[in-house]
Amino acid sequence: MEKAKGAEVKLVVGKVGQFDVVADGRLVFSKAAAGRFPEHEEVIAAL
Questions:
Q1: Between 20 and 30 A from 2 (CA), which of 12, 14, 21, 38?
Q2: In whole angstroms, what is the distance from residue 46 CA to residue 24 CA?
Q3: In the predicted model, is pLDDT for residue 2 greater than 80?
């Protein structure tokens, strides 16, 4: 994502099984809501 969008990427440890993608304080993907991990392309498009 750093290469695709020039965005700073960091891992923040959360609860067991949690996988959220947050950009500028906005939730752009939630594994809990979607029931799956995101595809790389959909995360890049959401940024």
A1: 14
A2: 12
A3: no
Query: What six digits make up the tokens of 34?
Result: 């979607």
Residue type, 8: E
pLDDT in tens, 17-47: 899 999 888 899 999 999 999 999 998 898 8
What is the spatial distance between Cα 35 and Cα 10, in angstroms, rounded to a whole number? 22
The Cα–Cα gap between 23 and 7 comes to 9
Q: What are the φ/ψ torsions at residue 20 (nearest 5 degrees)?
A: -120, 145
Q: Judge contact between 3 and 45, C-beta under 8 A.
A: no
